[in-house]
Design brief:
The structure holds two protein chains of two kinds. Chain A is α+β, with helices and mostly antiparallel strands. Chain A is built from nine helices and seven strands. Chain A has a five-stranded mixed β-sheet, with helices on both faces. In chain A, strands 6-7 form a two-stranded antiparallel sheet. In chain A, helix 2 crosses helix 3 (about 105-115). Chain A is globular. Chain B is an alpha/beta fold. In chain B, about 40% of the residues lie in helices and about 15% in strands. Chain B has 24 helices and 19 strands. In chain B, strands 12-11-15-13-14 form a five-stranded mixed β-sheet, sandwiched between helices. A four-stranded mixed β-sheet of chain B has the order 2-1-3-4. In chain B, strands 9-8-7-10 form a four-stranded parallel β-sheet, sandwiched between helices. The chains are: A alpha+beta, B alpha/beta. The interface between A and B is large, with 38 and 36 residues.
């Protein structure tokens, strides 16, 4: 029999398989932890940090990303606290200008903004960024590589210049088979919205016709 | 090709043989061939010395040797003449014949000696120069004595004897125990005890294990790892071998950043020579222990110094940090236990094994043992690499070794720990420098960068500089680091431009806290440190920028104006001719004045105005006095 660990999440004793993450343990016990870059088919990535929780071990409290932190015996986890709420609120506020479309954000980001009282326009004028409708969660990039099995997408640039790019030679093959998966995983709705043929800012027809 | 050594005894015999072949009476000229001196032309100078010695028919009498970096890089090309240890600074090609003649005739070339900028006296011996005199060079000391391209020179100085000792007389656990007992803390940043790290790797399940050297030094202004790797690569290799032996690893890697070509070159030569002597490869010194080393050249990414990013890069993946709630010591390269230490940490290990943990513990402070190499740069008289015992005060380092602030200006702060560190103000100058003390002062040891700042440095601008640096060097993966840096960059830039507003400081603090709490890796969790420490110690400067639109250091261009004091102006035309914006008005004999509409605050007029006039005035946060009526003549009385 596979080993189990027992931990406490929000005051509730829960069991989890050895090797499971705190997020998995919570979800299996119907405890909700919000996320923006998690997909059950993908390896934990830890980029959005929305899933941050307080993990207490040996009397020490740390803020950890629940998507990657291993569930351990005796671990005490809190998924809500003033400190966590502050973190989630600010993360949404900081990333929102990148995700805004027609003056608002959609999907999970909208829900979280409401839940945590985040003002999605708070930093808009300060940041002065042109919304790419992309929060760089990497879901499309990782899904393509890990599930579809061909790295047609990737990241280019470092730091604040980071962006999603595609690799034409591989993309030619992968995208020809359809991209519904990308529409599905994109949390800002960018890919879905542009499914009329302008994935990632280029038209797939032009691309397949070799014009790119 | 040399014979492979098959025991520690053979290594000792080889050492004796090398030493006995040397003529102790032979005169020597050493040329520093570190990267710093090479930019001053050390290679050509070295060749010229070889040629000149041949020309003067002195080859039997005088040895010419290229060595590693001496550390006093601003004075290059550095030459030392032995046996008297006469130091010549700023030596150029045309000086070579004179120096050779002087060495042969046991004379001194006065004009090339070092002149102390503080006392004005010339100093003959290298070790008498204040920059060197107050240092304790345990790790860095051999740099200037050996040619890094010749393993025999390292062996002659006792090199690889610690390895010989360990392999022939110590069990792996004893080597580990010695490093633990020495309480050697990681010299690359966090100061984590190396022994504990080694032990964690050793006891982690999984084979093979790896030992890795981090030479991705990227802090602005820091270059001690480069100098060690270039100047004494064998000391790093020996430390790596000792680690491998202690933790049961048989494969090592050295991650060297792309920007260090000489380090890569010297390292590769060193590895090849070590292998030829049987100090690397299978069955080292007949002990049965085998170890090989691969070199990985980085592709120029600061973030690759982070352990999980560095290991991803070695695996051939993008150098980005990953979630690492499981330490790399347990799951590193290819998911196997991997020990990672920095260059200086490894280079310290042979000393500990050779002289013992007790000796090492006798140096330094309670929590930080041994010495630390700092790169002392910025607004000090003497800049370069300095190695001092832990616990020396900032004041001793900056004033005794560094010779104080340039041009007698006032000290304002010293930045330690690079972009993850902070800025320490004058009131803490007497703090002893060690890992814990610097952390207590809201800075950190980091890899040992020490940038000295004077009264003309704007602390808001410095914070902005480091945030700018990280905006381009963060990997950009996680939201708090990427977006936090972007937001801090915008806010700080606005403040420096005089466009800050009430509430900015509070927003900065809010953002910084979330970056600290929630970022993926240490780059992000520490990225706001330069901002937080300047806010802690220099909050009034932030407030002056925001509330009074004044830059107290009169540095931020948008908040600084220049005008010409009509009582001091001699109408010499110098500023008028040099102004790139043609903003200076006037004529010969007519008092000059600056057209504020045209002025770009570049400061050229301020810099070129002769000090005997000092007529150009820099102001911030106050109204510029009106110019004199057009055509006002200079009154002659002040000429006398």
């Amino acid at each position: 029999m596979e080993g189990m660990v027992t931990l406490q999440i929000d005051g509730k004793q829960v069991k989890a398989k050895t090797g499971a993450t705190v997020l998995q343990a919570a979800r299996e016990n119907n405890i909700r932890i919000p996320t923006l870059c998690v997909h059950q088919k993908l390896v934990p990535y830890g980029a959005c940090r929305i899933c941050s929780v307080e993990a207490e071990k040996n009397g020490k409290i740390r803020i950890v990303a629940s998507c990657g932190y291993p569930a351990e015996d005796g671990l005490v986890v809190r998924t809500r606290s003033p400190r966590l709420d502050r973190i989630r609120k600010l993360l949404i506020e900081m990333v929102a200008p990148q995700a805004v479309f027609e003056g608002d954000v959609g999907g999970e980001i909208r829900k979280l903004a409401d839940e945590y009282g985040a003002d999605i326009h708070r930093f808009e004028s300060r940041l002065r960024v042109r919304s790419q409708r992309c929060i760089l969660c990497g879901l499309c990039v990782r899904y393509c590589e890990e599930v579809v099995g061909a790295p047609a997408l990737g990241f280019a640039g470092r730091g604040i210049e980071r962006r999603v790019v595609f690799y034409p030679e591989i993309a030619r093959r992968v995208f020809a088979g359809g991209m519904e998966w990308a529409t599905e995983v994109c949390p800002t709705g960018k890919i879905g919205a542009e499914s009329d043929g302008t994935y990632f800012g280029f038209t797939i027809d032009d691309f397949l016709a070799g014009k790119l | 090709m040399p014979k492979r050594l098959s025991s520690a005894e053979e290594l000792d015999n080889l050492r004796k043989k090398i030493v006995s072949k040397r003529d102790p009476h032979k005169l020597g000229i050493t040329v520093c061939a570190g990267t710093g001196c090479q930019t001053y032309g050390a290679k050509a100078v070295f060749d010229a010395f070889v040629e000149e010695v041949r020309k003067q028919d002195l080859s039997d009498k005088v040895d010419v040797r290229a060595t590693g970096c001496h550390g006093f890089c601003e004075k290059g090309v550095l030459i030392v003449a032995f046996p008297e240890e006469i130091a010549y600074v700023k030596v150029q090609l045309e000086d070579v014949p004179e120096v050779v003649t002087a060495v042969a005739n046991k004379q001194i070339v006065e004009r090339l000696l070092y002149k102390d900028p503080v006392t004005g006296k010339t100093i003959v011996k290298e070790s008498d120069i204040p920059f060197y005199k107050h240092q304790t060079r345990l790790v860095f000391g051999n740099n200037k004595l050996l040619d890094p391209k010749k393993i025999e020179e390292y062996i002659a100085l006792g090199g690889y004897s610690a390895l010989g000792k360990a392999l022939s007389r110590m069990k792996p656990d004893e080597v580990l125990a010695e490093v633990k007992k020495a309480n050697l803390r990681g010299r690359g940043g966090g100061g984590f005890p190396a022994g504990a790290k080694w032990e964690e790797t050793k006891s982690a399940p999984g084979e093979p294990k790896y030992a890795v050297v981090n030479c991705d030094e990227g802090d602005p202004g820091a270059y001690m790892d480069r100098s060690l790797m270039e100047g004494n690569p064998h000391s790093v290799i020996e430390g790596l071998l000792l680690c491998g032996y202690a933790i049961g690893a048989h494969q090592g890697y050295v991650y060297v950043r792309k920007e260090y070509p000489l380090a890569v070159e010297n390292l590769r030569i060193a590895l090849k020579q070590a292998e030829e002597y049987g100090l690397l490869g299978e069955n080292i010194l007949g002990s049965g222990f085998g170890f090989s080393v691969g070199v990985h050249r980085g592709a120029g990414a600061f973030v690759s110094g982070e352990s999980s990013a560095l290991m991803a890069a070695i695996e051939g993946k993008v150098g980005e940090p990953r979630l690492k709630y499981v330490h790399t010591a347990v799951s590193g390269i290819k998911g196997k236990p991997t020990n990672l230490n920095n260059v200086e940490t490894y280079a310290t290990v042979p000393l500990i094994i050779d002289k013992g943990a007790d000796w090492f513990r006798s140096i330094g402070t309670k929590g930080s043992k041994g010495t630390k190499i700092f790169s002392l740069v910025g607004k000090v008289n003497n800049t370069g690499l300095v190695e001092v015992p832990m616990g020396m005060t900032l004041r001793q380092i900056i004033y005794d070794i560094g010779g104080g602030i340039l041009q007698g200006k006032k000290f304002k702060g010293v930045q330690t720990g690079g972009p993850s560190g902070g800025i320490i103000p004058e009131k803490h100058l007497d703090a002893p420098v060690d890992f814990d003390e610097l952390t207590r002062l809201n800075s950190m040891m980091g890899s040992g960068g020490m940038v000295v700042m004077d009264e003309d440095t704007c602390m808001v601008d410095i914070a902005r500089y480091f945030v700018d640096f990280l905006c381009g060097e963060s990997c950009g993966k996680c939201i708090p680091c990427r977006e936090g840096l972007r937001l801090l960059q915008r806010i700080l830039t606005d403040i420096c431009k005089g466009q800050g507003s009430k509430g900015d400081i509070e927003t900065i603090e809010e953002v910084a806290q979330v970056m600290l709490d929630a970022s993926l890796c240490a780059l992000g969790t520490t990225a706001a440190n330069p901002v937080l420490s300047t806010l802690k110690y220099f909050r009034d400067e932030y407030e002056a920028h925001i509330d009074k639109k004044r830059c107290p250091a009169r540095f931020c261009k948008a908040l600084t104006s220049y005008y010409i004091d009509p009582d001091k102006c001699s109408a010499c035309l110098i500023c008028l001719r040099n102004c790139p914006a043609q903003a200076v008005n006037g004529a010969k004999g007519e008092i000059h004045w600056i057209n504020q509409e045209k002025c770009t605050s570049c400061g050229v007029c301020f810099d070129v105005c002769p000090t005997r006039f000092s007529a150009v005035v820099k102001i911030s946060g106050e109204a510029v006095p009106p110019p004199p009526p057009p055509g006002t003549k200079v009154s002659r009385k002040k000429e006398g």
